[in-house]
């Protein structure tokens, strides 16, 4: 049986090793999925772009929390009407005991040749009443502009109906015509446009009106060739997605998914480079000795006495925050401890009889280091590589938690930092705080399990005990 096969059998015989390997494969699989299917500029293009998340409810808990409550909070509803005709309807059922959190609409891709089209949005309620809640008029041609006129192709036109004065005027008129109530538009805005649209008066109080609704969109066009590419109407929910949203309405599940490859990138790259540099310099220091040993060891003493976290904060503060700057600093100041340990191992290994025999017959130093010294420290280096990975991940998370992470790459530490800065902890928004902390802890636990599984491989004494 070869040495590698024997070492693998010892490693795999531990339950901790099996747990660590399964978790690591899971983390790597998720990271590969994100890298393949997510755009590389996701952080700057989407995550840090508030307009991209404008149609999501803010600070909404996950949808599955509804199973643990006595009432069923309204779900998030999005209706997309592709190429709407002159009169387009969409039917849906509203059976929730609460009101939507907001109402918004978006129009994109409008083309017309003479008079700009108008769009009327109405809601036919279960009680038969029709609520015209918004009329959207496309902007007129500019002086000197030639037909066909194109509007809202690059940037769709979004209207936050719940906070729009025109919408409140329509609803105020509806209340006067249907119920004989004089409710000022300002009062409609304060109470909530969505509450009047989806509510009915019972004993003088607004309560949700459940049943079958019809969303109707009427497009008034001066020319049959005029087109509207898409109309989107959103009735905001009180719950959202798998892991909820933050204060900006960002889908936390999406941000946490992108944090997988970021954390593994920092951990693997930093651990690999520090292990490679520390092992090489440690081998040279221990085997060559002399001035080389003195220079390397004094450098290690200096680096070991420099506090790393304040240094990381200093450099990321004066330089542009970047994931590569963080990795470079961690590597530059993280190899010294390993170099000292490898030096001591090499100094013992070079006194072995087979090493002295190789030296006596004139074997080059490079070959001795490669063929006789390195195999003796290789198991220790593998264990060190795995054990140092979570340290780099935690260092990046700590910097991000302090607000010094790379803003172009959403990470678990940044999500935690924004949760604390925005008062998510004080408000009890647990879905914003617990998942990123749990993922950081679980990833560190994975490498701890792998390290503990490697201990019998590295230490023969532990191997005899299991």
Short summary of the structure?
This protein has 466 residues and is of the alpha+beta class. The protein is built from 16 helices and 11 strands. It has 2 domains: 3-47 and 251-465, MetI-like (MetI-like fold, Orthogonal Bundle); 75-235, Jelly Rolls.
Explain what the structure shows:
The protein has 466 residues and is an alpha+beta fold. The longest helix has 37 residues, at 252-288. It has helices spanning 3-12, 15-37, 42-47, 165-179, 185-191, 193-197, 252-288, 290-304, 308-318, 323-332, 336-349, 353-360, 365-401, 412-421, 430-458, 460-465, and strands spanning 77-82, 87-94, 103-112, 118-124, 130-137, 149-151, 157-160, 199-202, 205-208, 211-220, 227-235. Helix 7 packs parallel to helix 10 (323-332). It is 52% helix and 16% strand. The strands form 3 sheets. Strands 1, 3, 6, 7 and 11 form a 5-stranded antiparallel β-sheet that branches. It contains 16 helices and 11 strands.
Q: Would you count the extended β strands for me?
A: 11
**Mean pLDDT value:** 88
SS-derived structural category? alpha+beta
- Radius of gyration from the CA trace? 32 Å
What proportion of the residues form beta strands (DSSP E)? 15-25%
**What is the CATH third-level topology name of the largest domain?**
MetI-like fold
CATH class of the largest domain: Mainly Alpha
Largest sheet: 5 strands, antiparallel
Cα distance spanning the termini: 19 Å
Our count of helices gives 16
Number of discrete domains:
2
General shape:
elongated
């Amino acid at each position: 049986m070869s040495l590698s096969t024997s070492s693998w059998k010892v490693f795999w015989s531990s339950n901790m090793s099996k747990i660590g390997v399964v978790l690591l494969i899971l983390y790597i699989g998720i990271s590969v999925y994100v890298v393949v299917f997510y755009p590389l500029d996701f952080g700057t293009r989407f995550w840090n772009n508030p307009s991209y998340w404008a149609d999501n409810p803010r600070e909404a808990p996950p949808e599955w929390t509804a199973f643990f409550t006595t009432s069923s909070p309204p779900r998030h509803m999005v209706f997309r009407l592709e190429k709407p005709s002159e009169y387009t309807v969409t039917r849906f059922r509203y059976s929730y005991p609460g009101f939507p959190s907001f109402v918004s609409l978006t129009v994109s891709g409008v083309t017309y040749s003479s008079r700009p089209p108008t769009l009327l949005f109405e809601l036919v309620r279960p009680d038969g009443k029709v609520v015209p809640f918004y009329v959207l008029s496309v902007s007129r041609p500019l002086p000197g502009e030639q037909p066909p006129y194109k509007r809202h192709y690059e940037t769709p036109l979004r209207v936050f109906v719940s906070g729009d004065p025109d919408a409140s005027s329509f609803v105020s008129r509806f209340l006067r015509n249907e119920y004989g109530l004089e409710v000022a538009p300002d009062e409609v805005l304060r109470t909530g446009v969505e509450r009047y649209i989806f509510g009915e008066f019972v004993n003088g109080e607004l309560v949700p009106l459940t049943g079958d609704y019809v969303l109707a969109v009427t497009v008034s066009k001066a020319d049959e060739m005029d087109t509207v590419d898409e109309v989107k109407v959103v009735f905001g929910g009180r719950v959202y997605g798998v892991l909820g949203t933050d204060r900006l309405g960002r889908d936390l599940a999406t941000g946490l998914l992108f944090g997988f490859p970021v954390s593994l990138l920092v951990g693997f790259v930093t651990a690999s480079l520090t292990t490679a540099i520390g092992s090489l310099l440690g081998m040279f220091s221990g085997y060559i000795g002399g001035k080389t040993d003195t220079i390397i060891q004094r450098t290690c003493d200096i680096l070991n006495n420099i506090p790393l976290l304040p240094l990381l904060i200093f450099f990321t503060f004066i330089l542009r925050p970047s994931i590569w700057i963080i990795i470079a600093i961690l590597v530059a100041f993280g190899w010294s401890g390993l170099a000292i340990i490898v030096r001591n191992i090499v100094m013992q290994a070079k006194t072995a009889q087979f090493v002295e025999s190789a030296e006596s017959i004139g074997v080059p130093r490079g070959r001795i280091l490669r063929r006789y010294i390195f195999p003796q420290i290789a198991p220790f280096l593998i264990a060190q590589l795995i054990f140092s990975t979570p340290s780099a991940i935690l260092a990046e998370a700590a910097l991000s938690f302090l607000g010094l992470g790379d803003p172009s790459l959403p990470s678990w530490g940044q999500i935690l930092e924004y949760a604390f800065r925005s008062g998510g902890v004080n408000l009890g928004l647990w879905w914003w705080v617990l998942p990123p902390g749990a993922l950081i802890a679980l990833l560190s636990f994975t490498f701890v399990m792998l390290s503990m599984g490697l201990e019998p491989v590295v230490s023969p004494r532990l191997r005899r005990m299991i």
